[in-house]
Amino acid sequence: MKVNINKTDKEKLKWFFEKYIYAGKKYLILIISLIFVGSLAANISPYLYGKMLDSITLGDTDFLLKLIIAYFFITIFTNLLSMLEAYVGQVVNFKLSKKAQTELFDKMIRMKTYFYSKYEVGELLSRLNGDTDGIVSFGINLITSILNIAIDILVSVYFVITISVRLSSVAIFYIPATFLVTYFARKYFKELAEKRKKFGDEYYSFQNEIFSNNTGIKSFQLENNVNNKYKGFINKEFSLLKRSIYLKNNMQLANSTITVISSLFIIYLSAVLIKDGLLTIGLMVSFNTYINKLFASISQVFNINVSLQEIMVSLNRVIEVMTTDSEVNNVLSLEEKRKNIAISLKCEDITFSYEKNEENVLKNMDILIDKSGLYSIVGSNGCGKSTFAKLLIKLYEVEKGKIYINGTDYSKLSCDFIRSCITYVQKEEFFFNDTIINNIRLADENLKENDIENMCKLVGLDEFIKTLPNRYETIIGEGGSTLSSGQKQKLSIARAFLRNTPIYIFDEITANLDGKAEKDIMKIMKEYSKKSIIIFISHKISSIIDSDKIFVFENGKATDSGNHEYLLENNHMYKELFKNKGI
Ligand SMILES: Nc1ncnc2c1ncn2[C@@H]1O[C@H](COP(=O)(O)OP(=O)(O)OP(=O)(O)O)[C@@H](O)[C@H]1O
Ligand SMILES: [Mg+2]
Question: Residue 385 C-alpha to ligand 1 middle, in angstroms?
Fold first, then answer.
């Protein structure tokens, strides 16, 4: 069955159980068997205990000894069983929830950028870590407790009816009354669960934002402001807790009122029956034990129904992510990737906006690059340069028009094919909290140390790295926090070229470089542009002056193109750029 956010709750649950709970079928059967044997063994103990008391009274020490031995082994046996049950229970819980989490994680990282950008980081974290765990635990508990509940209900119904049909009539009041309480409570618990989830999303996002912007908070002296916001979250959490206690208390009050009415009714009716000689005190006591067991089991069933409402909130959140579109990938081998020698890029009348019905960021744009070379893009802030780059690596899809690589329409190509042809380097590149060498090897895990060192020499980074105590094995902190901005840019350029793709897009990567470093890097760009297509987005005239072709972007369109001399002569905007030494 294919899950869909519009399916009914029943279908969604069926999908979830089939996909994630039944996968642990063997473990679940084992737990159910352990519970079953355990409860049988536990029921024998009181019987043996009674027998022991009787043997003591009769002075039958031989039999008492046998009973003591049997009691000892049964107690040890039940303890071992419950240990085993706890172990298997935790293993199955771990395995199944991690299976669901692994799939969700994979889905999240492969989600189309359009959907991904709609979530805050906190939202993704709480769905991944909180919601999946909750649903899996619920599913396992449901399956494992269902047998116990069923046995309890069957046994108690049998005894209750056998003892007294007339007394059993109390259930005619108890069951519908308890059902009504849970029926009305369900709605409120669901509402509360939705609020709590939304709160969790905002709370995690807030924390993520604060901890990743510590320098900004310090330099703008926002500590008090941030502390107050944090306290605001605590207050909100407290009011949610109060609401939860209020709902639970109300439900408990209603349920205990129903129970006390039922018990008093039983006492009165028992008295009448005993008076008429239709019931004994002993049977009345047994009846009470069984009817309480029955009521407890029934209220357990109704409580599952209430928890189910909360679980549905989590399940919907998981399904929402699971049903968003993923990028289409074919997972190419390294050899296949290397075969992709791209020689041309063509954009034909492309139009794009981030949101439907919003103003277009790119408008009827035409661009043709049909041989290797250094191609620059210039234009004012917000005119669509980075957006154009994102379309070229298929982070987003064009609304109208077509992009071709080597003459093949992008819509026919998978994301991983396109990204194996094109390396996109952003101004603020990504780095992991790992060593320099491992960060470079993200380009290709089989890179040889020698090649890495040579590339670092080329971008002017090797000398600096060799001053570090652990050289290439130095850990660079979260996001490369121990490196300067220029060093990070050099590292990202080195890493990009080591990917060895036919096309590169560099988005403002010389912004943080000093004059000499910029010149050196542009020399490397020129060298690489002999055998590859280099698209260079920049506001710095010194970085683009030697380009084979410069595209001038204005308001979502490539309005002009040519080399530096041509544009200086013919393009007013470019002339201004040159005059100001940058845009
Ligand atoms: N993820 C996004 N969602 C919605 N709008 C966006 C998004 N990214 C960019 N935009 C909008 O698209 C327009 C073009 O942005 P883009 O980043 O392409 O500009 P740019 O030419 O690279 O500018 P800059 O020189 O400042 O880097 C801007 O108006 C921007 O507000
Ligand atoms: Mg940009």
Answer: 8
Task: Give the closest residue (by CA) to ligand 1 atom 6.
Answer: 354
Indicate the Cα dihedral angle 355, 358, 359, 360, nearest 10°. Answer: 30
**Contact 116 CB / ligand 1 (< 6 Å):** no
Residue 384, pLDDT > 90, answer yes
Going from the Cα of 549 to the center of ligand 2, the distance in angstroms, rounded, reads 19
As residues whose CB is below 5 A from the ion ligand 2, the structure lists: 386
Dihedral angle over CA of 367, 372, 378, 379, nearest 10? 20
- Distance of CA 432 to CAs 111, 180, 464, 477, Å? 21, 55, 19, 7
Distance CA 118, CA 524 (A): 38
Neighbours of 317 (CB within 10 A): 21
Measured distance CA(562)–CA(550) in Å, rounded = 5
The number of C-alpha atoms within 13 Å of 53 and in the hemisphere containing its C-beta is 6
d(CA 402, CA 349): 7
CATH topology assigned to domain 339-428+501-580: Rossmann fold (3.40.50)
How far away, in angstroms, is 426 Cα from ligand 2 center?
8
Residue located nearest, by CA, to atom 17 of ligand 1:
386
For residue 516, the model assigns a pLDDT of 85
Tokens of 275: 């008076």
φ, ψ at 153 (rounded to 5°): -65, -45
Question: Ligand 1 in contact with 385 (CB < 6 A)?
Answer: yes
pTM of the model: 0.84
Q: Average pLDDT of 193-201?
A: 93
**CA triplet 286, 289, 291: central angle to 5 degrees?**
105
Residue type, 441: R
Which residues does 282 contact at the CB level (< 8 Å), separation at least 6?
A: none
Nearest ligand atom owner, CA of 392: 1
Task: Give the pLDDT confidence of 301-347 residue by residue, as tens digits.
Answer: 988 988 898 899 999 999 999 998 888 777 666 666 666 676 799 99
The per-residue pLDDT for range 73-106, each reduced to its tens digit, is: 998 998 999 899 889 999 999 999 999 999 999 9
